[in-house]
Design a protein that fits this description.
By secondary structure, the protein is mainly β. The protein has 4 domains: about 325 residues, Tachylectin-2, Chain A, CATH 2.115.10; about 130 residues, Exo-inulinase, domain 1 (Jelly Rolls); about 140 residues, Sandwich (Jelly Rolls), CATH 2.60.120; about 140 residues, Exo-inulinase, domain 1 (Jelly Rolls), CATH 2.60.120. The strands form 8 sheets. Strands 35, 36, 37, 38, 39, 40, 41, 42, 43, 44, 45 and 46 form a 12-stranded antiparallel β-sheet that branches. A hairpin with a 2-residue loop joins strand 21 and strand 22. It is globular and about 100 Å long.
Length: about 775
């Protein structure tokens, strides 16, 4: 949404508090986000929600691009990582397996790396590959953003990195000012639909359609003065009856209409209603909600920005995820069932007569859920309800309101009040009523009371559940295939940009949850000030790189084996251990021959993880039985510029200019080939005879070059993020270059006759796999 202009229009300066003197947003090196990681936090600051999502640090507003993909909910959001006020927008990113336990991930979209205004939008997964962008195992993921026209950013690696489609060309442009594209699938017409807010001729929604998610056609406009910013649109069955479907169109304030949609035109059948009675403006408690796409249970789940919630290092949070349903034409919100995973310390009571002198009281806490049902039949109380840590949530019988929201007494006379109470957040639900609030005056010591005023009322039942913290189960910066949660056993372990940093005076360990025995363990290790860092397996075995110039395999009480190696600080080393029974083989930097081959029978199973000794070191890409980097070139491999690391299925290089990664093998005449892709970078290539490189370049070419000369260039579209297969056949001074099996260059140059094989990346990142020479 147009955050700055809207904030001023609303008359609210959201928020004047900042962490320090504002730091201008900056992009840094493409593919490298200097704003992440954030300062360490235990998520326990005053007013920080314990089960409400907030950014680890900085400002957040609208949820964006929310979807389910391969076991994870992905949540993106408008984000300024540099302070606690709205400023240059980034897209923050978090993931969750259950909508409850969220893990902050590196920033997804960053100014300067990704073009356009990175304002609100949404995301979808292209399971059918209608875009044709798929390259590799992952389905394309597209997110839509931009102002005065929609821009597409896409990921081909499961939302780890994003490229920009067509250089940032706008694919759908309504008249007037526009923003906040929302894309969804319309099954009946078998087309994708985009709805976008615009003010061309007044407030309203413009509808576009597409069959390939890339080419969009304007279809219609729904004009409505009430409709402003952040549209969301989804189908729901009336009263759960699939034979009675209807469409719901909402805006940022939570106002909505229901009606018919044929894939091109929306026709409302109801007047404007309101889904939540919190303060629904950009400084309030309920604004700019968005629903997830692709929920595996088929639900429509919504999270909504709470602007007024803010603390010392973070600003803004989201409501707890709520499932949306239609009762008649009234939209209802209910906390998702996954909240049950946080409950403990349950207290319940039933059939109590409440009077002003006889409330029912139970101890409270700073994060809990309470639900109470009252029977108004024969009641004389004028008001009744729940007193939550000093805050009244009352039903007023004369006004027929619950916490200020209209709620006629239901048929049967029973009123149910459900409340979620967090450190600074309060959500109230009562039948069709939802009220989202931000509260700064909770007193946990005051407890929870069911009470009556002006007479009596019968409390049919009450259940109180404490809610545990939802934070701390994921790993924001540590990439690993080992199952978490991870836990420290000695030392201090913190998130850093290139993994997890451990610091210890002696030995410190960071271990994953599940035990394992035989297998292939590997990780990237970087010595900062530490004397050694290593890969731990079976609880007690550790293979380390040592600043003293050795690779060591040891366990408590025994050094099993050592091997000499040149170890340099601040450079990642890849260490791999193949454990088979009592035999252990240790490999350094993708060497094809183990540097250690030894036996020991002390331990057969145990946890795996990492170790640091006497100082600080960084670990990343901790893998168990991963495909790894496949190559037939001799190691160890050596970097020349940049940083080279190994993920679960590739090697990746990153650097500002040209960065090289050389194997130990040399060649004169050969065929050399690899799979490669750019990752928020300009070019990636394969290097041979030390100085020649054949690369793919996102500027639209395949190039054969050496220092001082471009030997040959072939223009062809190169899609950022897509895997390509590059082959070079060298015979004397003749070089033939094939792209995906088709020859595109046939050239000659006689500068270098022999030399090493390697990999190259330029101005950013590139990934490589299946590197072979014959």
């Amino acid at each position: 949404m147009g955050r700055l202009s809207r904030l001023l229009v609303s008359g609210v300066l959201v928020l004047a508090v900042v962490m320090a003197a504002p730091t201008p947003a900056r992009a840094g090196t493409p593919g490298d986000h200097p704003e992440f990681p954030y300062a360490q936090t235990a998520y326990d600051e005053p007013l920080r929600g314990q089960f409400h999502f907030s950014s680890r640090g900085g400002w957040m507003n609208d949820p964006n691009g929310s979807f389910w993909y391969r076991g994870q909910y992905h949540l993106f959001y408008q984000h300024n990582p540099h302070g606690l006020a709205w400023d240059t927008m980034h897209w923050g990113h978090a993931t969750s397996p259950d909508l409850v336990h969220w893990t902050q991930k590196p920033i997804a979209l960053e100014p300067g790396v990704h073009p356009g205004d990175l304002w609100s939008g949404n995301g979808v997964v292209d399971h059918a590959n209608v875009t044709g962008l798929k390259s590799g195992d992952d389905d394309p993921i597209l997110v839509f953003s931009g102002t005065n026209g929609a821009i597409i950013h896409y990921s081909l690696d499961g939302a780890k990195t994003f490229q920009t489609y067509a250089g940032g060309r706008k694919v759908a442009v309504p008249n007037g000012t526009s923003r906040d594209p929302k894309v969804f699938w319309h099954a009946a017409s078998r087309r994708w639909v985009m709805v976008m807010w615009s003010d061309g001729g007044g407030n309203g929604a413009d509808f576009f359609t597409s069959t390939d998610l890339l080419t969009w056609t304007w279809r219609s406009r729904y004009a409505a003065g009430w409709f402003f910013e952040c549209p969301d649109m989804f189908p729901l069955p009336i009263d759960g009856d699939p034979a009675r479907p209807t469409w719901v169109l909402t805006d940022a304030s939570g106002e909505y209409v229901t009606g018919d949609f044929d894939g091109t035109t929306f026709r409302p059948r109801t007047g404007v209603q309101r889904m939540d009675y919190g303060r629904n403006d950009a400084g309030g408690t309920f604004y700019a909600g968005q629903t997830f796409t692709g929920d595996p249970q088929g639900r429509t789940v919504q999270m909504v920005w709470q602007p007024a919630s803010r603390g010392s290092v973070w600003s803004g949070n989201l409501t707890f995820p709520a499932e949306l349903r239609l009762q008649g034409t009234t939209l209802t919100r209910t906390p998702v069932a996954e909240i049950a995973g946080l409950r403990y310390g349950t207290t319940s009571v039933s059939d109590r007569l409440l009077t002003p002198a006889q409330p029912y009281t139970t101890p409270g806490g700073d994060a809990y859920e309470v639900s109470a049902t009252f029977d108004t039949t024969g009641a004389t109380a004028t008001r009744f309800g729940l007193r939550l840590s000093g805050r009244d949530v009352a039903y007023d019988r004369a006004a027929q309101t619950l916490y200020g929201a209209p709620l006629p007494v239901p048929a049967g006379g029973r009123v149910t009040i459900r409340a979620l109470v967090d450190r600074g957040q309060l959500e109230v639900f009562g039948g069709p009523v939802s009220v989202s609030d931000v509260v700064t005056g909770f007193n946990p010591a005051a407890g929870v009371s069911a009470y009556a005023e002006g007479g009596d009322v019968r409390l049919v039942s009450l259940r109180f559940d404490k809610l545990s913290s939802a934070w701390g189960r994921g790993e924001p910066t540590l990439d690993s295939t080992l199952p978490g949660p991870w836990a420290a056993d000695g030392g201090t372990w913190t998130d850093v940009a290139d993994g997890k940093q451990g610091t210890a005076s002696g030995d410190g360990y960071y271990l994953a949850a599940a035990p394992s025995g035989d297998g292939t363990y590997e990780a990237d290790l970087t010595l900062r000030s530490a004397a050694a860092a290593g890969l731990t397996f079976r609880d007690r075995y550790t293979a380390t790189i040592d600043a003293g110039g050795v690779v060591k395999l040891w366990r408590p009480g025994r050094v099993i084996a050592t091997a000499p190696a040149t170890i340099t600080r601040d450079r990642p080393y890849h260490l791999k251990v193949r454990a088979e029974g009592a035999r252990f083989r240790v490999y350094l930097d993708h060497g094809t021959t183990p540097v250690i081959d030894a036996t020991d029978t002390a331990y057969t199973s145990g946890k795996a993880g990492a170790n640091v000794f006497a100082g600080a070191a960084v670990i990343d890409n901790v893998q168990l039985n991963a495909p790894g980097f496949r190559t037939n070139l001799d190691g160890p491999w050596q970097p020349s510029g940049g940083a080279w690391t190994t993920g679960p299925a590739y090697v990746q290089g990153r650097g500002d200019g040209d960065s090289f990664y050389y194997s130990a093998r040399t060649g004169t005449d050969f065929t050399y080939e690899a799979d490669l892709r750019t990752v928020n970078g300009t070019a990636g290539g394969i290097t041979f005879r030390d100085r020649y490189t054949a690369n793919i370049d996102v500027n639209g070419l395949v190039k054969l070059w050496r220092p001082g000369r471009d030997v040959a260039v072939y223009p062809t579209p190169i899609v950022p993020g897509r895997w390509y297969h590059l082959t070079v056949t060298a015979t004397g001074a003749r070089f033939r270059v094939l792209l995906n099996g088709r020859q595109v260059i046939d050239a000659t140059d006689d500068a270098y006759a022999t030399g090493r094989f390697g990999l190259n990346t330029y101005a950013g990142s590139a990934a490589f796999q299946n590197v072979r020479v014959s």
